[in-house]
Every structure is written in C-alpha cells, then in structure tokens.
Specification:
The protein is mainly β and 100 residues long. 13% of the residues lie in helices and 47% in strands. The strands form two sheets. Strands 6-5-4-1-7 form a five-stranded antiparallel sheet, with helices on one face. Strands 2-3 form a two-stranded antiparallel ribbon. Strand 4 and strand 5 form a beta hairpin. The longest helix has 13 residues. The two termini are 20 Å apart.
C-alpha cells in the first residue's frame, strides 16, 4: 500500500532503461534491426515501494508489464544482471535515472 507524504515531499524513484538494437514483435515472434525511431526497450522502475519490469516491443508497439518483489534491495544490480542474461547480445545503451 502506498503511503501519503506531506506536501512537497517526494519518494525516491528509479528508472533503469536499456535500449536494444532490435525492434521486435511479440505476437509475430519476429526480430529485425532497430532504427533511430523504432527500437525495443527493457525498463525497470521503482516507486512507492513497488518494483516493475517493462518490456516494450517496438514493431507492434506492445507493452508487457511485470510486477517484481517489493523487497528487492538493489534494483540496479538486478536490472543489469537480468538484462545481460536475456538481452546481452542486443543491448545498445543503458541509462539509470534516480530522483530523491
């Protein structure tokens, strides 16, 4: 359950974003090379005590969202390891964005 914070206070959020060198279709089970405008992403997001993994399939603009264990301590390490395991051969770049 989310808790309300006093006005002006914000919870820390984290976004770990990986851009892939492919654009794929989940429904067609298809992968083709990415373009500057169309590429798959894998994202891990933490906010309000919850953790999520989001995979975006660029070719058919399909979004898959999976909730993760809220007790994950180090989401960045998990995100890097998981992405390397499943997408290591197609990761083009990655970003970590955190707020306080």
């Amino acid at each position: 359950m989310s808790k309300l914070l006093p006005f002006g206070e914000f919870m820390k959020t984290s976004l770990i974003l990986f851009c892939l060198s492919i654009q794929s279709s989940y429904s067609e089970n298809l992968e083709i090379p990415a373009t500057q405008a169309a590429f798959d992403t894998v994202q891990f997001y933490r906010a309000n005590g919850m953790n999520w993994c989001v995979k975006i399939y660029a070719k058919d603009q399909d979004v898959h969202i999976c909730s993760l264990d809220p007790d994950i301590i180090d989401l960045i390490t998990l995100a890097r390891a998981d992405t390397e395991t499943y997408y290591g051969d197609v990761v083009r770049e990655g970003y970590i964005i955190e707020t306080e």
